[in-house]
């Protein structure tokens, strides 16, 4: 319509005057508004310099998208096989159709990091992995240069997913479709019904994560609970894995809040997602030298696997000396949240940062 054409014209005029110096002088809120108006994702963009760089990239003429994929999408690489710390165990040769779990009658999946897949995947995965599945099955869903890591909530009859819109088949006859949370579709930059590559991966165990809410409403909702930290832990535990750049959805009292995963620390030598017959060499070597450690504050003797004191939460001395965020471990792009001693750091909301600007 006329309003849409006027907005396109306004954005075109703005783009013609945008330089790094001009954009750097604008508030964060205005930068985000311009990105959203042009359909450029802001997932994982926290610093002003990152927003400026995304706008400058958006002014470049993109190559013709292949395979009918969307124009104007600048995906953020996440859960990558190399930089993302994901050890790829197998990748299906065909792409799987991603269907909205909410549209298929499973809206509660939107608040988790899990997907529902056909039962026929069990046989296909077991054949490739030598008859044994990992205790925690981790999947990487990738589209173009973007990827997310998720767990499996349930294996269901193929017919139920086919009825929701499932289509083709993998080699061996397994139905190539899955029900996914809406945040997964958003992070990949795809619409429901589009396809993605599916890999089985093993990830470092997370020790620390930093989350940035999009608005101040999340902190306000969290603060009204009698035990905010316990509530936050329960919400995070619904996610099996996360990657830097993910925008996850956490629900409090029926209201959904979007939060960006802006930083992660983990232990690449200790991975979840490996079948029992596959030796985690790094973890095995670490266990040979692992010893209990004494807290420097309260003197409690803690088991080797803990990154912080059980009594006072003081970080293990060698991890504190290493610095860089907390929780021990090293910076990683993707990590598993199952059976971990996780520290969660909440950054000021993007809304608050915009006001500060």
| Spatial shape | globular
Proportion of residues in helical segments: 25-40%
Q: Strand portion, in percent? A: 25-35%
Mean pLDDT: 78
Question: Low-confidence spans: pLDDT under 50, at least 5 residues?
Answer: 59-77, 279-288, 320-324
Q: Give the ordered list of helices and strands.
A: HHHHEEEHEEHEHEHHEEEHEEHEEEH
- The number of helices is 12
**Rg to the nearest angstrom?**
22 Å
What's the short version?
Strand 9 and strand 10 (255-272) form a beta hairpin.
Layout of strands and helices, then pairs:
Layout: H1 2-17, H2 20-24, H3 28-37, H4 48-58, E1 87-91, E2 96-100, E3 114-118, H5 120-128, E4 138-143, E5 146-156, H6 158-163, E6 177-180, H7 182-188, E7 195-213, H8 217-223, H9 228-236, E8 241-243, E9 247-252, E10 255-272, H10 281-289, E11 293-294, E12 301-302, H11 317-322, E13 330-331, E14 334-336, E15 343-346, H12 350-356
Helix pairs in contact: 3-4
Structure description:
The chain has helices at residues 2-17, 20-24, 28-37, 48-58, 120-128, 158-163, 182-188, 217-223, 228-236, 281-289, 317-322, 350-356; strands at 87-91, 96-100, 114-118, 138-143, 146-156, 177-180, 195-213, 241-243, 247-252, 255-272, 293-294, 301-302, 330-331, 334-336, 343-346. The protein is an alpha+beta fold and 357 residues long. A hairpin with a 6-residue loop joins β11 and β12 (301-302). The chain is globular and about 60 Å long. It starts with a helix and ends with a helix. The model is unreliable at 59-77, 279-288 and 320-324 (pLDDT under 50).
């Amino acid at each position: 319509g006329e309003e849409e054409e006027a907005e396109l014209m306004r954005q075109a005029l703005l783009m013609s005057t945008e330089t790094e110096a001009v954009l750097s002088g604008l508030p964060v809120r205005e930068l985000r508004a311009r990105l959203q108006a042009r359909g450029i994702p802001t997932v994982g963009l926290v610093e002003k310099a990152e927003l400026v760089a995304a706008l400058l990239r958006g002014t470049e003429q993109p190559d013709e998208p292949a395979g009918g994929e969307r124009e104007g999408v600048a995906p953020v690489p996440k859960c990558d096989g190399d930089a993302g710390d994901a050890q790829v165990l197998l990748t299906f040769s065909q792409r799987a159709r991603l269907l909205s779990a909410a549209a298929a009658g499973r809206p509660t999946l939107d608040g988790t990091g899990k997907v529902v897949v056909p039962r026929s995947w069990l046989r296909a995965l077991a054949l490739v992995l030598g008859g044994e599945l990992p205790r925690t099955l981790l999947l990487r869903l990738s589209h173009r240069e973007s990827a997310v890591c998720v767990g499996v909530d349930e294996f269901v009859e193929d017919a139920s997913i086919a009825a929701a819109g499932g289509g083709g088949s993998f080699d061996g006859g397994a139905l190539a479709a899955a029900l996914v949370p809406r945040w997964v579709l958003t992070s990949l930059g795809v619409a429901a019904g589009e396809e993605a590559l599916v890999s089985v991966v093993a990830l470092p165990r997370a020790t620390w994560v930093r989350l940035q809410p999009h608005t101040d409403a999340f902190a306000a909702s969290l603060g009204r609970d009698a035990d905010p930290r316990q509530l936050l832990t329960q919400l995070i535990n619904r996610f099996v894995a996360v990657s830097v750049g993910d925008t996850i959805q956490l629900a409090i009292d029926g209201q959904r809040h979007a939060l960006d995963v802006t930083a992660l620390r983990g232990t690449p030598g200790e991975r979840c997602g490996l079948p029992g017959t596959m030796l985690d060499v790094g973890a095995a070597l670490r266990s040979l030298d692992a010893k209990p450690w004494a807290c420097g504050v309260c003197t409690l003797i803690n088991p080797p696997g803990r990154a912080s004191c059980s009594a006072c939460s003081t970080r293990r001395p060698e991890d504190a000396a290493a610095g860089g965020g907390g929780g021990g471990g090293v910076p990683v792009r993707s990590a598993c949240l199952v059976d971990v001693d996780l520290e969660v750091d909440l950054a000021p909301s993007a809304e608050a940062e915009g006001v500060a600007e």
